[in-house]
Amino acid sequence: MVGSVSALGGFLFGYDTGVMSSILEMDYWKDYFHKPSSTGVGVIVAMLTAGCFVGSLFAGWLADRLSRKRTIMLACVVFSLGAAIQCGSRNRAMLIAGRFVAGLGVGVLSMAVPVFMSEIAPPSIRGRLVSLQQWAITWGLLVAFWIDYGTHFIKSDASWRIPMGIQIVPALILFVSMFFMPYTPRWLVDNGREDEALKVLARLRSNGDITDTGVVAELEDIKHAVQVDRETAVRSYTELIKFPIRRRVVLGVLIQILQQLTGINTTLYFAPTIFKQSGLTGDNASLLAQGLNGVINCLATVPAILWIDKWGRRKTLMFGSLACGISYFIQAVATGATQNKTYDDNGDLNLNMPTGVSYLVIVFIYIFVASFAMSWGPIGWIYPSEIFPTRIRSKANSVTTASNWLFNFVIGLVSPILIKRITWGLDLIFALIMFASVAIVFLFFPETKNRTLEEMEFIFGGSPWAHKDKKRIAEHDTTTNHYVDEKDA
Does 349 score more than 80 pLDDT? Predict the structure, then answer.
């Protein structure tokens, strides 16, 4: 229940992403804002992620000072303000400002929510619990797609103002719900509130029994880890680039960057445009196709939630990279071999592909989305939230999350331009990145499934070549009677 409530933070980002992707194709929105060019659309779309980048940088400091819980509540207030500004926009500048303010809230939530959930979850289900945030993102996308589809029949500016205003509702629900959520045990211990931490752990693990041996042992592990962290405390962000934390920071940043370089947000933001280019005519057809896209994204995340702690992080990421890369490559070849570019009276690009090829491309867009949802979607958030020690977790996660939003911003800014200018070339670029990421994960990313947050010090204390470090970790597991299925490691 605690994880489900806090995952609403992901719903807010998903909704804002989904609502904007379909609004971009609404005639009343285009007319009200004087038919923005591809560059103008890129600025409007990317301004949310610019705010996310700034918000995520402040999130670490806020989470340490105010607690993870209060930081989430503050972010809800900021997001609601941004949503209200967007809903009431009178001109393009006001819309851009509203998206930036909303982005500040989403940026804080995207860092604080995974940390909150990773610190309250037991190791055996931590991946499953943190992946709830990604599932909430997909639900936000899904709800937004279908609300947009319903309101686009309204013959007034309400067609786009209503879906923009609705996003305030889940933010208020999350804000109120967090009053009833606990502070995380690790934050409580770090702030000298050990008795309260024991009670919270007992509520989360043993139905309130503070004498439970597992609860007492976990509290002692946390106290020891916090004490060690204090002796080597990170007092500034510059210390994150020093040994031995540097390796984990690099991997945390890299996995967030690669998550964006899958191209998922290009597909989510601009899918209606891509569907139109591929041969779906009319707003109804492209918006319906986008709605189906949302359903697939949501359903394909479920297997990750159920089995991510069995599959492991490494194999799931490599499978996802391979499947995404193949999907992109087939789209690139099919489009490049058959397209015949023309432009309509509004300057919109049509590729004029044969009907069969158009359907083939659309099917592989769906396969790409499903492959991402089962792999890079959840693990991109799980991995950084679980690899850092308590004392630096907030600062380190703010840096890794900021890198995600920075690349999200760049991709959102340039995608509408590249979609129009190089069409299938963008698919080929993403395919090559995905194939390269298979090797990157295999070489450098250690397996972290079923490990306590306190065990990460040992996991990342060996060779930076992850594929060569399995023997050392296996010997440690044998010594400590820690069981991890070797086939999944």
Answer: no
